[in-house]
Structure to design on (316 residues):
């Protein structure tokens, strides 16, 4: 069976695309990914999504979006798109390296994942004191000392959140100025539990008995190494787009973000559209992702309509 459209990924972009595609009678099949709901499943309160004056929990928002898509007939398959063949239509999508699906068109909304420092000790201590998600793991650091690496909005947000549990939170940043917005910086600066170590480069996560005991950093001015003792290290240095499974079949920028044609969600492959964080290195907000999800579904609808029209003209 060939689907009219397959949607890959279920953040706000994928769910919104599914709602619009289902309401356009395209009967979309949605490949949920290994972490359905995406990055918002890892947040607590979302305060800037319009329509929720008191805020809404990220997982609740995602759950509501999924239910809304289901209400209009979107179908969901759990698993990750591990391979695609875009060399001919219908396109083929392989899920979890086993099941294959075919579709006339594709919407890629696979989002982005947390980046790591890639220093010794880090990978093996994930789950043993190293984390990329304060919301998920903060609870385990009650009355402990933690470090948050990064100088962007995420680092400010994670650090502020962690003060709910930790006794001490130190933000560790590689420059002496922050990238974070003024409002987020101020919120963190006003928090008496947060302290700062600036202008240092992390070089090693240090452990004792397979638990994090600190972070070794190099002072960028003096070159001196120092150890920052801590029970936890939260890495909050941004994200990378989830496009490896495309194996270069769709045009991306140097980092891997999908390039869309100006003012549309169309990619370099006809019939393949992209929306959300996977194609957006600039805004990366839930609301902008949802907006582009809507655009992708409308672009697919128009593209399929134009194709069917062309085929019927050819037949006559
Ligand atoms: P980001 O803005 O790209 O910041 C990443 C931070 O990590 C930067 O300070 C960067 O340092 C540092 N960094 C990157 N690689 C590093 C490495 N290898 N070692 C040490 N430090 C490293 O990422 P983000 O904070 O995740 O934010 C992403 C987007 O989401 C932004 O547009 C942000 O505004 C938005 N956001 C908004 C909110 C909110 O409004 N509630 C919350 C979170 C995120 P440099 O500064 O030196 O480059």
């Amino acid at each position: 069976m060939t689907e009219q459209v397959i949607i890959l990924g279920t953040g706000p972009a994928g769910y919104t695309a599914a709602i619009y595609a289902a309401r356009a009678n395209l009967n979309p099949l949605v490949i949920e990914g290994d972490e359905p709901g995406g990055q918002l499943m890892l947040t607590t309160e979302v305060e800037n999504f319009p329509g929720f004056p008191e805020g809404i929990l990220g997982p609740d928002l995602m759950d509501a979006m999924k239910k809304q898509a289901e209400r209009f007939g979107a179908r969901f398959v759990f698993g990750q798109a591990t391979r695609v063949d875009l060399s001919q239509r219908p396109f083929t999508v392989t899920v979890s390296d086993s099941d294959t699906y075919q579709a006339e068109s594709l919407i890629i909304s696979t989002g982005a994942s947390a980046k790591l420092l890639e220093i010794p000790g880090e990978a093996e201590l994930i789950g043993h004191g190293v984390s990329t998600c304060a919301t998920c793991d903060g609870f385990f650091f009650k009355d402990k000392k933690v470090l948050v690496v990064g100088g962007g909005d995420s680092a400010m947000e994670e650090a502020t959140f962690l003060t709910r549990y930790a006794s001490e939170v130190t933000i560790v940043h590689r420059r002496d100025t922050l990238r974070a917005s003024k409002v987020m910086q101020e919120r963190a600066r006003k928090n008496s539990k947060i302290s700062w170590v600036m202008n240092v480069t992390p070089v090693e996560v240090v452990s004792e008995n397979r638990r994090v005991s600190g972070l070794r950093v190099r002072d960028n001015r003096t070159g001196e190494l120092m150890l920052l003792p801590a029970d936890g290290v939260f890495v909050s240095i941004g994200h990378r787009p989830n496009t490896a499974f495309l194996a270069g079949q769709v045009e991306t920028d140097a980092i891997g973000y999908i390039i869309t044609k100006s003012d549309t969600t169309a990619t370099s492959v006809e019939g393949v559209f992209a929306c959300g964080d996977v194609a957006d290195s600039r805004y990366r907000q839930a609301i902008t992702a949802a907006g582009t999800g809507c655009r992708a579904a409308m672009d697919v609808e128009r593209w399929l309509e134009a194709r069917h029209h062309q085929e019927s003209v050819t037949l006559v």
Observations:
- Residues 123-235 form a domain with the FAD/NAD(P)-binding domain fold (CATH 3.50.50.60).
- The mean pLDDT is 95.
- The chain has two domains: 2-113+239-315, 123-235.
- Residues 113 and 239 are 5 Å apart (CA to CA).
